[in-house]
Amino acid sequence: MRLEKKTMLRSGTAQSPLRGKDVRIVECSESYVYILNSTHRVSVIGCMDCTIFVGAAVSLSINACSRLKIIATAKNCRVSNCVDTTVYLCTNHKPIVIGDTRAVVFGPYNASYDQFERDAKVVGVDPTKNTWDDYYAPIGVSASSSAFSGSPNTDQHLPTLPASAVTLLPPEKFFPFVVPIAKESEPTISSGVTPAPQAAPLPPKYAEIIERRKAEVEALRKAVRTAQSKYADDGKQGGSSGQDLQSVVQDYFREWLITSGNLRQINDLVKLEEEFSKAAGK
Q1: Rounded distance, CA 103 to CA 97, Å?
Q2: Model confidence, pTM
Q3: What is the Cα–Cα distance from 51 to 181, expressed in whole angstroms?
Q4: What gap in Å lies between CA 28 and CA 180, rounded to an integer?
Q5: Are 172 and 158 in contact (CB under 8 A)?
Q6: 10-residue block means of pLDDT along the chain (282 residues)?
Q7: 43: β partners
Q8: Residue among 44, 40, 10, 39 at smallest CA distance from 26
Q9: What pairs with residue 83 in β-bridges?
Q10: Facing residues of 26 across strands?
Q11: Non-local CB neighbours of 10 within 8 Å, separated by 6+ positions
């Protein structure tokens, strides 16, 4: 598949099943791709400025990509000739890094995905034994390249790459990723009101960050509710109203959607939801 500024969901159908198949994602740019099933092999080649989610794969190959974010469960993972690429991974084998690789970052699997356990089981991955941080770099990546407490396996007889070639994601930069798809195999868009729980166990430092962020969000919500209540009382007395505050918050949120590029993905998902509904005869 080749995409430019698009959002694509693939889960397979009874007539064209995706499970156990090979998937090639080639030369995509500024796009969002969701592979919502277990597959045999996923090859990501020559993509840039994309976010790619892979439900599960026996083999995941990422080659010649730049400014890529990929979230995946994979029995085997290989990264080659990539630049500025972040891989959030759940695997039981050592990820392999080869070729002219620069600024590649490995992080623990961060997705909330309803079918995680099903897909991981099909490809033979045990989420409790995630070796995302134990990468193997036969090209000789220096052990000092780890951001913290990593244990890369390297060939000490080969020249080492710069420390920035491969690193581990610092906990303070870790954020969860919610797959915007409801339960079951039919690709129905989720409202996002009650996202699925974190699918794979997190290392303690990353779990602490998530809990801290949850507390910060709840504190912010409480502050907004308090402010709305106050403004509502002021509005009854002829002052500013809670509706004014809500409008300000919505304006800032809309501005963020536009500047971050997420508005386009939302519009694409809405269109896909309409297509799915028509196909289902709803």
Answers
A1: 12
A2: 0.77
A3: 15
A4: 20
A5: no
A6: 88 74 95 94 97 97 97 96 97 92 95 92 95 79 43 51 80 91 50 55 94 88 79 59 69 79 73 60 54
A7: 24, 61
A8: 44
A9: 66, 102
A10: 45
A11: 18, 23, 33, 34, 35, 36, 37
Q: Which amino acid is at 256?
A: W
Query: From CA 132, how far away is CA 74, in angstroms rounded?
Result: 10
Distance CA 230, CA 122 (A): 53
Q: CA-CA distance, 210 to 103, in Å (whole number)?
A: 24
Q: What is the DSSP letter of 261?
A: T
- What phi and psi, each to the nearest 5 degrees, are found at residue 190? -85, 145
What are the C-alpha distances in Å from 188 to residues 20, 114, 119, 276, 280?
22, 12, 18, 7, 10
Residues 178 and 68: their CA atoms lie apart, in Å, by 17
- Cβ neighbours for 83, distance < 8 A, ≥ 6 positions apart: 65, 66, 67, 101, 102, 103, 104
